[in-house]
User: What shape does this take?
Amino acid sequence: MLKKIFLILFIFLVIGGSMFGILLYKNNASVQNLISPIFHKDFTDKISSKIDTSLNLDFSSSKQLPSLEKVPRYLVYNANTGKVYYSKQSNQKISPASFTKLLSAQVALDFIPEDKTIIVHPESINKVPTVLGLKPGEVFLVSDILRGAIATSGNDAAQVLADESSRSIGATNQEFLYYMNKKAELLAMKHSHFANPDGLDDQNQYSTLEDIAKLVNNVQKNYPEILTAANSDNQDIATSSSHGRYYLPNWNGLLNVYPNVNGLKIAYTEEAGYSTIVTFSEAGLSLVAIVSGTGSYLERDRAAADLLDAALIANNISPKRISTYQLNLRYKQWGDLARKIRQELNELNK
Assistant: This one.
C-alpha cells in the first residue's frame, strides 16, 4: 500500500490559503544526566576524524539591522572570513530545535556511510510532531533517510539514523547522546548541550547561535552528504520492494526563491519559535544567516532574506530583494502538496 509522509503531523492552510501552520508539541521531558556511559568500546576516534574549528566569528564591526527590530535573535556572517555583519542576542541560550539534526546527522555519518542500508525498528518511529510516517521493517539507504531528516526535518528519520548508526557499532541510545555531546565539545560548542537527536524541547538541551555557527561550519567543511540533503527539494523516496513512497519537501522558504541559496536547515518548536539557517554562495562569497525565535514562516524567511541582502550590500554586491509575493508562492506550493497527499490518502482509505 502506498505510504505517505505525515506533513508536519497536520498541515492546514491559513489566511487566504497561501500559508500553512503546524500543530505544535511541547516536550516536558525530565532532566537527564548525560554522563559518559560504560562503553563496550570507545568510538571517540570515529567522531574525531571530521572536526573543523577554524571559524572565528569577528564581531568588531557587527551591528543590529533596524528593519529586524522585532526579531529576537539573528546572525549573518562571512563563512570564509568569520566577519559578522549583523547580529542580535547571538550568545543567548536557546532551544536549538531541529538545528540539532545537523549534529546528530554528523555523528550518524561518522558511524555509517550514506550508501549503507538500514532497517526501521518500531521504537525509532514513536515520534511527534514532525514525522515522515516510516513503518517498522522498511529498509532504506542512509542517504534517503538523511534527506528526510535534513530537508523535511522528520523526527522519526533523525531517530532512525541515530538508532541504526548506534546499532552498527554496538552502542546504546544513551551512548549516542554521549557522542553527540562529545562531538559538540570537540567543535568548541562551549554553551551547548543535547538530550535527544531530533530537537524536541528539553530543559537539558540548549545552544546559542554562535555555537550553531560552529556546527554549520563543520557541516560545510566536512559533510557534503548533509549539504546535498539540505539542497534537495521534493527529491522524494520512490516506492520499492523494501519500502513505500515518501514525499520529501524542503521547508527552507528561501531555497529556489532567493538566488544562490543552497541550504541549510529550518527549525521549529514552541520554545524555539520559527527559526532557520540559510546558506548562500555567489562569486566566491559564502554567507550564513541564522534567525531564531520568530512568530511565523514569513517573518522567519523575510528576516533571513533581509540579512542576506544587508550582507551583500556590505560586500558591494547588489541585493536580491525578493518579494513577499515570491515567498507566498513558495508556501502555496507546500499547501498544494498537502492537499495532494490528503486526496491520495483519502482514496487509499476508500
